[in-house]
Amino acid sequence: MNQNQYIEDLKDIKEIMSRSSRFSSLSGLSGISAGSIALAGGYAAYSAVYFGQAVITYESLATLLVIALITILSAVGLGIYFTTRKAKRENEKLWDLHTKRLVINLLIPLITGGAVCLMLLLKGYIGLTAPLTLIFYGLALVNASKYTISEVRSLGILEVVLGLLAMLFIGYGLLFWAVGFGVLHILYGVIMQKRYGS
Q1: Would you say residue 1 lies in a domain?
Q2: pLDDT-based confidence at residue 24 (cuts at 50, 70, 90)
Q3: Which of 2-6, 28-32, 94-98, 129-133 has the lowest mean pLDDT?
Q4: Judging by beta carbons within 10 Å of its beta carbon (0-12, 13-18, 19+), is residue 138 exposed, middle or buried?
Q5: Distances 22 to 48, 120, 176 between C-alpha atoms, Å
Q6: Which domain covers residue 115, as residue numbers?
Q7: Which helix (H) or strand (E) holds 84?
Q8: CB-CB contact of 118 with 64 (8 Å)
Q9: Residue range 121-133, pLDDT digits in tens
Q10: How far apart are CA 76 and CA 83, in angstroms?
Q11: What pLDDT is recorded for position 87?
Q12: Distance between CA atoms of residues 169 and 105, nearest Å
């Protein structure tokens, strides 16, 4: 065996170890379904609150929060379903040390961001909510990406950039929100489907 063969063998071993230390059961269908649900939620929010109304009232704000909660629960529920299905199909363990690390690193920025957004809503800073949800969600993805596939990091960076852009155009938060949580997730899901299958 020559030196080049040893180097190739070491690269293969490193790749196998890297794959075994990452959560890889994320399904492309999870991204597509989450994006579709986000677009539907964005349309429902626009129809219920913004259509023909210039000012957001406390009543319309409560409606927005209900729509957001339904959207999040639906997206997470379908994401768990498709990811579980993929893990079973590939005979992978769904809940292990890597999954726990992924979830913990995802939840820390998400819970922090959610708390910040709720505090700002209570103080009347409604326009900051959409940009900040994108930014904190993006940071959560980047933070968790070291425990899963590299595409999650790219999605996180795009979400942060979009959130920062949304800070410059406060009145268009719902549009940025729909692009970030809707369109980007659908594109991510399509890419995941092509690269890794269901």
Answers
A1: no
A2: low
A3: 2-6
A4: buried
A5: 41, 35, 31
A6: 27-196
A7: helix 58-89
A8: no
A9: 888 888 898 899 9
A10: 10
A11: 78
A12: 30
Q: How far apart are CA 166 and CA 34, in angstroms?
A: 21
Q: Residue 32 domain-assigned?
A: yes
At 51, the pLDDT band (50, 70, 90 cuts) reads low
Residue written as token pair 């626009």? 46
CA dihedral (168, 31, 116, 23) positive or negative: negative
For the chain, what's the residue count?
198
The C-alpha atoms of residue 184 and residue 155 are separated, in whole angstroms, by 7
β-sheet bridge partners, residue 23 = 148
Please indicate, yes or no, if residue 83 is contained in any of the structural domains: yes
User: Which of 86, 70, 111 is closest to 24 using CA atoms?
Assistant: 86
Tokens of 112: 């922090």
What tens digit of pLDDT does each residue of 56-79 get? Answer: 666 777 888 888 889 989 988 888
Percent above pLDDT 90 for the chain: 38
Count of domains observed in the chain: 1
On whether residue 189 sits in a domain, the answer given is: yes
pLDDT of residue 17: 46
Q: Which of 77, 147, 135, 72 is nearest to 106 (CA)?
A: 147
d(CA 159, CA 132) in angstroms, rounded, equals: 10
